[in-house]
Amino acid sequence: MTTTVFPFDAIVGQRQLRDALLLCAVDPSIGGVLVRGDKGTAKSTAARALADVLPAIDRTPGCAFNCAPGQPCEQCATCGDGGAPQASAVPFVTLPLGATEDRVLGSLDIATALQGGRRAFQPGLLAGAHRGILYIDEVNLLADHLVDVLLDVATSGVNSVQRDGLALSHPARFTLVGTMNLEEGDLRPQLLDRFGLMVEVTAPREKAERSEVVRRRIAFEADPAAFHAAWHGAQQALRERLATAQRLLPDVQLDDAMLDLISHLCCEFDVASLRADIVMHKAARAMAALDHRTRVTPDDLRSAAQLVLPHRRRRKPFEQPGLDQSRLDELLAPPPPPPPAEEQGDGDAGEEQAPETPGDDAAGQVFAAAAAGAAPELRVEAAGGQGESGRRNAVANAARGQALRAVPDREATSIAIGATLRSAALRQPAGGDGIPHGTLQVTRADLHRPVRVGTNANLILFVVDASGSMAAQRRMEALKGAVLDLLTDAYQRRDEVAVVAFRGEGAELLLAPTRSVERAEAALRELPTGGRTPLPHALQLAMETLARAAGMLPPLLVLLTDGRANVPVQAGGDPWRETLALAAQLAERRVPALVIDTENGYLRLGRAAQLAQALGAECLALEQLNGDKLALTIRARLSAN
User: If I label 79, which of 36, 52, 85, 487 is the partner at 20 to 30 A Cα–Cα?
Assistant: First the structure.
């Protein structure tokens, strides 16, 4: 038992989190569990504690593939030598965010290749996690292509490697545990679906539960050995329960009626992915095995549905995962007898919404967003290969991404191993020119570096006019709807976003740059409308926000306003002159910008178009907002630079 790890059974509350981890331990083919929640909610603690209660495995000391006894991997030289297996703790492998594909999947063994010119495989993290746990903290910040690979392997249990002249596969069955904080942005729905289970965790709201958490943590830190000794009995009982469940799992039966109910639940909750049906089948059987039963019950399906369905419901980008518990209870309840004929009616009369009756004074009024349309696409050329991983900009010579080819480079800092060794072999065959037989000599002349292509993200700063003029003819509804459409594109491309709103006497940074577009959407929906138009304040705050974020991500400024500035920055100043001067400063800094003109009515001042000219940006009327036009506008703006 490891005394440096907090005991699993000592975790206070978090019942659903513990159940999800135990289910994946019973049946790793479930596909892992994603744990979402705020910081400080025992996500990492629970993941590390799970390894301590898993039954020990038999493995040969020194085996890099964690081969099961009697089932040696073809590439494993250790088990092939006939070493005696010994009881060992379950592997717990942490995948760092900066890990490369070579480190994760495995690659060519450089030492063996240099010594004898023979291709040999260097196992990666997936081999080390076989029969154990692979843990990824902040999985939403991991590059998408690595997440795809990990989830494929977690589902299939096999890691196939096709690289550096190698073509092989080895077992990689592990329990995948990913944790994430929504403040750093969400995973795309396609990747959410690939996780077998998902749990939302929150800090306890009851003071007694919170104080117990603190009490146990302080006791553990003061004397880990004594704390572990106090929980030894509970930990051992849980370890035996898991071992029994693993042995019992093949005998657990799920009959056709239960299978029909699984499919019925998936259809009723509008879940498109068939993975939901398959994973719920596996999770329900694992649930029964944990309770030492050989038949699945509706209660097992209820527990499994709460872990399998919420993150797979067909939903809009900003709709949060969740499950209607009353609807779930209704679907799992036995069908009621038909009502008497005289009691049968037309059913629900339907939902009615009271019409909005805004008062004459629009100050402080909160408008809903108009119905979302098709998400416009903002295409922005990257200024070099810098920035975090994203999906908006194609970046040549990227630091990370797909390797297209290898080119000679005597000063290479990232080496294309296969191409470098091939160059050395062609230049100097092993054992020639006085070099000992079986040795391959590599010089700087042989070095090759990989040429990669990738994508990176943008920082999109939305500057939103929330002044009283936006209340006229409910223009704020259309404006909010337009920004939500643009946020949908940012969500899909993993951009960072920030929101500045201006109304009354000044501008406010509603949301500092963040990957969580959901927070931007929430701030926008709650934004009140009314008051004067401090447009120069907004441009000044936008410039300060972009200056603080300089050098991190390529910026894009999206300004939504009618341009009717009437509040100056300097007392006694001319608001419109200040607006044009600040716009000129932004243009000098070559900030790509787009102005969306929200002015309407018969008489128009055309101030938004003048502002766009000062910014060196295109100007679109709010009614013109559509994907094709926006894509062309941003490309034209940047190519002109």
Answer: 52
Is 275 labeled as catalytic in the residue annotation? yes
Q: Residue 529: which H helix or E strand, with range? A: strand 528-529
- Higher-pLDDT residue of 630, 256: 256
Catalytic residue among 131, 275, 285, 313: 275
- Where in 270-366 does DSSP place strands (E)? 365-366
Would strands 365-366 and 92-94 be described as parallel, antiparallel, or unpaired? unpaired
50-93: per-residue pLDDT in tens? Answer: 888 888 888 888 888 888 887 878 777 777 666 678 888 888 88
Q: What is the model's pLDDT at position 284? A: 94
Question: Looking at the DSSP assignment, which residues form a beta bridge with residue 365?
Answer: 529
Q: Tell me the residue type at 505.
A: E
Token pair recorded at residue 634: 């941003």
Mean of the per-residue pLDDT values for the chain?
Answer: 78
Beta strands in 263-410 (DSSP E): 365-366, 389-396, 402-408
CA separation, residue 626 to residues 77, 600, 629 (Å): 60, 18, 6
* Contact of 504 with 466, CB cutoff 8 Å: no
What values do phi and psi take at 454, rounded to 5?
A: -145, -170
Which segments within 241-332 are labelled E, that is strand? none
Answer whether residue 224 shows pLDDT above 80: yes
